[in-house]
Specification:
The protein is an all-alpha fold. The chain has four helices and no strands.
Length: 84
């Protein structure tokens, strides 16, 4: 059985949320036609503003009550990594 890409497995995920460097590299290799994934931009800027707006909307509409309140849910971890 073939292994899935690292970005789809635990080894490609960061403990703080999102993808680690290995996960980003694996995603970029699996999707050559798309622009590469970049690391979080917690210090601010257009990418951060856009990400925070999109993820806050997803958190409100696409997650259950349990995930919204759980500080260890993937969405809350990634929002913290981006300082949203």
């Amino acid at each position: 059985m073939a292994k899935t890409a690292a970005w789809q497995r635990k080894e490609g995920n960061s403990e703080k949320g999102g993808l680690n460097a290995k996960g980003r590299a694996s995603y970029n290799k699996a999707n050559p036609g798309k622009p590469g994934l970049k690391a979080p931009q917690p210090e601010g800027g257009k990418r951060r503003d856009s990400f925070c707006a999109r993820m806050e909307g997803m958190k409100q509409k696409l997650t259950g009550e349990k995930a919204k309140k759980d500080p260890n849910s993937r969405i809350n971890k990634s929002l913290r990594a981006w300082n949203c």
